[in-house]
Amino acid sequence: MSKEWRNWAGDQRCTPARIESPQSRAELSDAVSRAADEGLTARAVGVGHSFTDAACTGGVMIRMDGLGRVLDVDGETGMVKVEGGIAMRALSEALWGHGMALENLGDIDKQTISGAVSTATHGTGSRFRNISSQLEAMELVLPNGALMEVSAGDDALLAARVGLGALGVIATVTLRTVPAFSVRRVDSPLPLDETLEAIDDLADGSDHFEFYVFPHTRTALLRQSERTDEDPRPRNPISRFANDVVAENWGMGAISRLGRRSPARIPRLARFASSQVGRSTVLDRSYRVFASERRVRFTEMEYAIPRRHAAEAVGRTLGAAERAEAGVGFPIEVRFVAADEAMLSPAHERDTCYIAVHQYQGMAWEAYFRSVEEIMDSYGGRPHWGKRHFQTAETLAERYPRWEDFQALRRRLDPGGAFRNEYTDRVLGAP
């Protein structure tokens, strides 16, 4: 038996029959086909940044970190082909060297591109869709080791773009890029009531808008970002370290540990943390601004709801956090994403508000998350596929208009369930 595998948060773990680390597409195909020949399932894993058991398996775990190469760059069309194991940060830096960028990114860039698209990872921006929408083509390794290419205009790409690893292992993706750009981000506090009253104007008034609010406070912490052709002005390393590591991570970690030891202090600690945020401006390369440093360990749930319910849902979620018996010191995060067409995208065919809730490691989270999920259910909410939720295939099917189309393709590509695990059985149904 191989050794135990754990995710980034440390709260999902499994012991695969073996772990393979292919270094080429040929080795990847061989690893998948050998697993099938031995009657073992296969699951690909990147850096383990999912909060669910999506990567867990008792079969063959395929680590993708040896497949991180840029294969082709077309400067005229902006198309770039990369292996599925390339990390988002490495991809962004490579693109910048060619004068290119991805049009939008999430706020964490440690994931592999295959993990990010498979779970519909997203950033924020009411005119921008999730990362998977930037795919023009994809190569999947099927149970017999064969490579299958799907491309734009093919229904199979609309399924595979957010495939949860259930259709095959992603060997390569071809991405549509844009010319490299800088982002000017302004962080500032605003009374929560004013934020909720103007939420649509704020969401549409910036290229990329999001906000945070700590439970037990009435102040929203706004992040308003604009795309620009200005040259980047990166902060000096000392200033960046002081803000991104000391203030946002060491400081938040210390506050969280105090709250875990003494939950009664959480309201006071949350008010203190909220009061420390002032106005600041950053102007840098797009990918450096989009991504944040995350060193404090936590678990998370995030839901996609129709945008029109955003203000009401934020208020109700804040109430659930403040009533949580365990105490909640982490802020609620609110972002906006444009509708897209991927079959299992949480933003499928509707402009979306994402609301995320968190709990510090080692603290009770389930009752709090269940209470928030009940709120999201009332809006027809769809869970982020890489974050905690309590839905099943039975509760999810009615929320996705093309659910049956996805299932039909799954039956065709993986009739024997070579890529199944407990997570896919739970949220997609057994094959």
Describe the 3D structure.
- By secondary structure, the chain is an alpha+beta fold.
- It folds into two domains: about 70-180, Uridine Diphospho-n-acetylenolpyruvylglucosamine Reductase, domain 3; about 180-385, Vanillyl-alcohol Oxidase, Chain A, domain 3.
- Helix content is about 30%, strand content about 25%.
- It is built from 14 helices and 20 strands.
- An eight-stranded antiparallel beta sheet has the order 16-13-15-14-18-19-17-20. The chain has a five-stranded antiparallel beta sheet with strand order 6-7-11-9-10. A three-stranded parallel beta sheet has the order 3-5-4, with helices on one face.
- Helix 7 runs antiparallel to helix 8.
- The longest helix has 25 residues, at about 235-260.
- The chain is globular, with a radius of gyration of 21 Å.
Beginning-to-end CA distance, first to last residue:
26 Å
Low-confidence stretches: none
- Overall geometry: globular
Report the CATH C-level class of the largest domain. Answer: Alpha Beta
Please provide the count of β strands: 20
Let me know the CATH homologous superfamily of the largest domain.
FAD-linked oxidases, C-terminal domain
Number of domains: 2
Percent of residues in helical segments?
25-40%
Largest sheet: 8 strands, antiparallel
Approximate strand percentage? 15-25%
Q: How does CATH name the architecture of the largest domain?
A: 3-Layer(aba) Sandwich
**Count of helical stretches:** 14
What is the CATH topology classification name of the largest domain? Vanillyl-alcohol Oxidase, Chain A, domain 3
The spatial strand order of the largest sheet comes to 16-13-15-14-18-19-17-20
Mean pLDDT, to the nearest integer, reads: 95
Radius of gyration: 21 Å
